[in-house]
Amino acid sequence: MTSRRFWRRNGATGWALSAPATLAIIGFLLIPIGAVIAGTFMDPRGVFAPYISYFNSGFRTTVLFRTLQIAAITTIISLIFGFMTAYVVSRAPGKLKSLLIVAAVFPLLTGVVVRAFAWLIILGRNGILNQTLLGLGIVNEPLEMLYTQGAVIIGMVYLFVPLMVLSLVGVLENIPKDVLQASSSLGASPLATFWQVLLPLAVPGLIVGAVLVFTGSFTAYATPQLLGGERQTVLATLLHQRAMVSFDWVGASTIAAIMTVITITIVLAMSNIARRINPMAT
Amino acid sequence: MTQPLDLHAISAHYGTTKVLEDLSLSVQAGELVSLLGASGCGKTTTLRLIAGFLSPTTGLIQLGGRDLTRLPPHKRDIGLVFQNYALFPHLSVLDNVAFGLKQRGIGSTERRKRAMAMLERVGLAALADRAPGALSGGQKQRVALARALVIEPPLLMFDEPLSNLDAKLRVDMRVEIRQLQRSNGTTSVYVTHDQEEAFSISDRVAIMNAGRLMQFDRPEVLYRRPANTFVARFVGFENIIPFKVVARDGDVATAETAGMTLRLSQASYGAIPDSFLLATRPDGLVVSTDPAAEGLPAQLGLRTYLGRAYQYQCVTEAGHLVANGSLTTPLEARASVKLVPMPEQCTILSADGAQ
Amino acid sequence: MSDRPHPILIGVAALVYLFLMLPLVIVVGAALSDTTYLTFPPQGLSLRWFENIFEISAFRRTIVTSLQIAFMGTLLALLIGIPAAYALNRFRVELPKWLGTLFVLPILVPEIVFGFALLKSLTVGTGVPIFAALLIGHTLLVLPYVVRVISASLASFDFSIEEAAISLGSAPIKTFFTIVLPNVRAGVIAAFILAFITSLNDVSVSLFLTGPGISTLPIQILAHVEQFFDPTVASVSVLLMFLTVAVMAVVERTLGLTFLAK
After folding, report:
1. How many residue pairs from chains A and C have C-beta atoms closer than 8 A?
2. Could you say which architecture CATH assigns to the domain C56-261?
């Protein structure tokens, strides 16, 4: 009896089973973040006061644009190299392909701190790169490579290229082989097939990958902290510094709100575009 | 325009597995030839070899005297219709059809004109601006057909083009394909596992098994005179009984199997060798209750109703046989009967399985 | 096949893989160095920096905390995530669409914002103990991965098998454990590993939820790097990598690594 009632296909069971996780997300994620964002509009100085003071500060707007710039450059570089690599991986024979995929997964599973630290050893004043350059006599004194935008971007690309490769391999594998064969049977050269068939079909996947990398690098903390330091402050490091060093809760909340809004807007807008132009959706 | 296709002694391997062995096949200009067989027989491999998606280990592929063997697929100029249609999902119906023309450097106005004309021929002009995703299976197949035809290829190939359509549409489409092929006179290779489809559409059919060509002939010949036991079973000769001639009396040979004898006249069966296989369809073995009939003694088993006749599973000294009996007198199981061969529904194969 | 990629593309891919692998090799080399400063190639091999990890009590403590949090957080996420994933697939028609979207939200929200929000509302706002806040944070951090990975394997599960078992007289709850769960076992293990590794390596959420006496290993490494620049950090990093490899080896034993490619 109970079992029959259980199995009538009504939503009650579904609601009950998903309730703990749903409540956890609402109670520990939506409400706290909502409270942080709502808090920024309850400033005694006026509704938008924290935002006005944020954008009035030259330093803080610089940080915002630097963060956007680093994320954009990281995304473009990851996109180019990730796509080329994914193309090669997707065309590799079975065994080699699995090996290449595992090789891309491994760095992903290694923590961000470890991966940023690796570049600290390489790019440091007494790091491997400087030692090598000095040893070869290419430079006379060590180059200052750390705490530059370049260092942060290298670290970020290192962080996100595997993600891009893996997601694009999935995209390329999803393109039916016979569509590509149809193209060449109709006389399209490999290059024409690439530009006229493969690339257009991969665009939605490229957008998804780009969004993943952009939002990831836009909100990353450990890499800019270790490789960029105070000279290359980004939103995430500024947020931490405001909250934990200056105890400026309103300032920190404002940064948190800006980051959240930008991230969600980009994700929603781009995934909407990707869905709309996806020819394989229908 | 239309050209003959020649395969000379083609062999192919997947890794170390041999998938095609010493295949030679000539398709005349304007002819439609089907490659017929179960999955894994090598028919699709043959098509992919001709298209250039696979390379043969040995052998030669020629189209109108031009050697294709080492040519990349995009230079072969072959129209290909895929099993899953393989339409470009990001292009409209019209652009799909025009794709091949674009690769041939034809200007956009001319391209559009020719693609529209072809869409008109397959009855889809009204859907030119649709996305392929919005079409039904039959419409997709027509677009695929138009896309392959519009480049006016000297060779057209079909890879199980109808297998994703429902039964009714399948019959309509195969008539349509045949009509288009006839009116264009394009040499065609058609791959299918459906015997009825192959026989109904083709000038000649190549029956394949385990990477080898078993028989290559007109459907009528395949149906009546299979060349070996494989083809015989494939086209429905369910009973294959080994015989030895024990006596000859002029035109009549007395043949023996498992202690039973049968008198066969060469006037009806053709030349009868000393040792042979008698192959019959169930229709070619008639159940008779007349004890004096010239047939094989049998005991009846399960009876099933076919509409035009009753079919009986029979036990004989020569093993299990399937025979048909008249509708007017249904017989019960365990009845003792004679199974009488009908010469026009039988064929004689040599003892080693070949004709 | 004639579609072998252009040699230039193969060259680029090879360089990308070199770029991916080399830094990790360098970390391992530096960890094995005998010198008191970071260098590569190592000058004299020794394990002294590994011993040093365990001599520094902060590292000892944080390794334990990290493992505890990762293990407990993952289990909690599985405990609430598996029923949710099951409900989202089994009652796809009955449940509203936004419920599925809700489980994607934690991925959309920047982790660092999530960490900061928890600090404000839990630790500061209601005085929840640091360890509990850290555990809650990590549970929610890995919950979306758990739901997504298990949903993916449930999506290919044929629920008529479950109905068949019930029609044969098996009780629904028992059916879940004897029929459904064994068939999505690979998904559950994958979810466990992904969640465990994500939690173990997390910085952004832990950053705000650590306090006096309670910290995680990655946060401790960050703090250490900013003060000292010696091979200890390299060896801790290697230790963390080793833990990752160990987890992956367990997967290899049970499932084969190729499932990660899915």
Report:
1. 272
2. Orthogonal Bundle (1.10)
